[in-house]
Specification:
α2 packs parallel to α3, α6 crosses α7 and α8 packs parallel to α9. This protein has a domain of 185 residues: Alpha-Beta Barrel (TIM Barrel). It has 9 helices and 8 strands. By secondary structure, it is an alpha/beta fold. α2 links the parallel β2 and β3.
Length: 267
């Protein structure tokens, strides 16, 4: 922690992603996009083969691997920055790590697949542990209120850190993500950004994913492709309030935003 904010570029190889579904269905398109992101200043690339948008259905391990593995293999051979894989499945994580991935971004924090932690542990890979209430299919349904939003999420993430360590994952390999948009209201998402510094007690780098999300559209209007300015504002606020890594789709634009936010934070 400390130093400049890192940028994680997002590549979704899914037909149903909320932000760019269908754009990178072919491995060649996704690899080209990853190479472009690396050239534009991404510090790592996060490849996902299963949509986790609200209401989405899971896909099989076989289908997720079909979407992800060629991209991981292609990027690992062509770029020098770490490749992350956004998956909840230990089988996908195992083969992705064998193919050259160095980070597993598990939005379920081991809740979906109990074998995930023991799969990651011997690999030496990094892991991102995120807060999500329920699973993507139902996470935005029902009562979304929290008894104590920040405390509840902090306690959840601490429990997941403790589990990871107990399974053999060194604490130095762990980052945390409060889960913007995953079982939260629009107001909750903004409160999380305002209070990111309260997650510093966990002692781990804080990753934040605000790019093009619905809470931005609720504030500014427009669909996912029209939320760049709102994303820039949310990224800036996230950095000023304590984020160490920002997960974004528009790397070239957000690189400049990050540079400016870092300059303000250091001043």
């Amino acid at each position: 922690m400390g130093g400049r904010t890192l940028i994680m570029g997002v590549i979704n190889t899914t037909p149903d992603s909320f932000s760019d579904g269908g754009r990178f269905i072919s491995a060649g398109q996704a690899i080209d996009e990853g190479m472009r992101m690396a050239d534009e200043g991404a510090d790592m690339i996060d490849v996902g083969g299963e949509s986790t948008r609200p209401g989405s259905d899971p896909v099989s391990v076989e289908e997720e691997l079909r979407r992800v593995l060629p991209v991981v293999q292609g990027l690992a051979a062509r770029v020098s920055i770490p490749i992350s894989v956004d998956t909840m499945k230990a089988g996908v994580a195992r083969e992705s790590l064998d193919a050259g991935a160095e980070i597993i971004n598990d939005v379920s924090s081991f809740n979906y697949d109990p074998n995930m932690a023991k799969t990651i542990a011997p690999s030496g890979a990094g892991v991102v542990l995120m807060h999500m209430r329920g699973m993507p299919k139902v996470m935005q349904q029902g009562d979304l209120s929290y008894p104590s939003l920040i405390d509840d999420i902090t306690n959840y993430l601490q429990e997941k850190i403790d589990k990871a360590v107990s399974e053999g994952i060194e604490i130095s390999r762990i980052a945390v993500d409060p889960g913007i948009g995953f079982g939260k209201t629009s107001t909750d998402n903004m409160r999380l950004i305002r209070n990111l510094d309260r997650f510093e007690k966990l002692g781990r780098p804080i990753l934040i994913g605000v790019s093009r999300k619905a809470f931005i559209g609720q504030a500014t209007g427009g669909g996912p492709s029209e939320r760049i300015e709102g994303t820039a504002a949310a990224v800036t606020a996230s950095i000023l309030y304590g984020a160490h890594i920002v997960r974004v789709h528009d790397v070239s634009i957000m690189k400049k935003v990050v540079l400016m936010a870092d300059a303000i934070k250091r001043a």
